[in-house]
Structure formats: C-alpha cells, structure tokens
Amino acid sequence: MSDFGQIFIIVVLFQNWIVIVSLPGFFTMIYYSISLYPDYVILLFIMKSVAKKNDAVSPVIGTILLVAITVVLVAIVAAVVMGMVGGVGQSKTVGVTVTPSSVNTSHTGFILTVTGGPDAGSLSNVTAYMEGVTFAESGVVKNMSVGVPTFVQATAGAPKSGTLTLTGTFNDGSKYVIYQNQFSIPATTTT
Fold first, then answer.
1. In this protein, which residues make up the domain named Archaeal Type IV pilin N-terminal (predicted)?
2. Could you give the domains of the chain?
C-alpha cells in the first residue's frame, strides 16, 4: 500500500466532495467536507483500497454459475410439470382418404378408405363427426380393411358442409383423431 509521502492529485468533484488519489495508484481517499463554520472545514475520511484482490468471484465464473443455476431450475420445473401432466403419450398414425359421395337423395355421405400407416392394422373402428354432430348413420364404421373403400352414410340431421373429423378407436382402447379437414357433400343426384 502507498503512504502519504507519495505525490497526490487533488480533484474537486462537487461543492462538498474532494477526491485525493495517489499517482502510483492502489490507494484512494475520499473526503467529504462539511462546513460547520465559514472558516473551518471538518473532513470525514472514507478510505478505499483500489488494489486488486482475489477474494471475489470473477465475472466469467459468476456468469457460468448463473447459467448453471438457471438450467437446474428449468429441469426441476419441467420435472414437476411433467409429473402433473403424466407425460406425453404416443399418437397413432393411420393414412385415410375421404371422397364425397352422393348416390341419391337418401344416400349421401363419403367414401372412406384406409390407405395404410404403421397403426392401420390395430384400427378397430372409426367415428365421423361434422361440426361436432355425429355424421355416420350407423354411428361407427367397423371392420376397416386397408385399401377397401367403405361408404359412410350421413345422418338426416348432419350438416352438409363444415369440418369433418374422423376419430379412430384402436385395439388397445385408445382414441385419436386420424382425419380433420373442411368437407362438403355434393348435391344429390337421382337414379
């Protein structure tokens, strides 16, 4: 540390602040003057060593620690949330084609063909909904085979256009949406 025998620079920062810095560095004295009387000035000393100390954590290590703590907190929150939700389940994949069909006024609906997919063999039945209303006359289409077209007749009160949703029920009892799209039944023809 430096002592008072060194050369000092005196800088007046504000009306009541005086900073004295030694030229070699490593020592700073900040004086705050309080004017009790116009002719006398009392100085309060605040000394601060500017010499580098290795007592604190470096900014790089501090940043690494903050990132590590954040990652750990995110992992804990994710584990808690996944525990509440029960995890993310697997979905089933089945390819289908849907073609509007209108044979006559009493036979309107669509032709459903299962085209394949890894879970096509475990598909036990399909339920059709148009805008939330059960679409199929029989309610459920059963015994679907890959590549075999099946006519699905519309119920009397089913909408003629809107979002068609096909929900597949599989052998394990699970239900998944296998098709959802805008759909319109064409005008009926007479035979």
1. 55-120
2. 8-48 (no CATH), 95-184 (2.60.40)
Long-range contacts of 173-176 (CB under 8 A, 24+ apart): 174/92, 176/91, 176/92
d(CA 128, CA 136): 6
Residue matched to tokens 């068609």: 164
**For residue 96, what are its two tokens?**
């289908």
- One-letter amino acid at 136 equals A
What's the pTM?
0.50
* Residue type at position 187: A
- Give tens-digit pLDDT for 93-103: 889 988 887 76
Give 99's Cβ-side CA count (13 Å radius). 10
Say which residue the tokens 């939330």 belong to.
132
